[in-house]
Specification:
Strand order of the largest sheet: 1-2-3-5-6-9
Order of helices and strands: HEEEEHEEEEHEH
Largest sheet: 6 strands, mixed
CATH architecture: 3-Layer(aba) Sandwich
Number of domains: 1
Mean pLDDT: 90
CATH class: Alpha Beta
Number of helices: 4
Strand content: 25-35%
Radius of gyration: 14 Å
Helix content: 25-40%
Low-confidence stretches: none
Length: 134
Amino acid sequence: MKNKSKGSNAERELLLALYDLGFAVSRVAGSGCSTLPTPDIIAIKKKKIIAIECKTKKGEYLNISDSQIQELITWESLSCCKAYVAWRLSKNNWYFIHISMLNKTNKAYAIKRKEILEKGLILSEFIDFVIRSE
């Protein structure tokens, strides 16, 4: 499966999982191609709005371009909603982390698999956190 279709399928999978958990959801198709800052998914529940950038990379680390994270920072600032990265480590195994918890490198933002397993939240924990947060 090509990377683009793999990523799109993963976004749809997460979109449906959030919908099944009672969120109003929208997938921003082609979000990586837009000239405007856009996350992959926008989800809303009980007046809580979150923006999610989805990643499905195998391996021990995830790098996200500086420009992509800067777009999420801009989105967060303009929308007053929180922006997260969701990294699917395996089938049905999503981990969520706020963009501020990524490590800045010279050219990108990064997180190691070990780090997201320690600091990230699985879907059920993430939903509880979002709903309870101010």
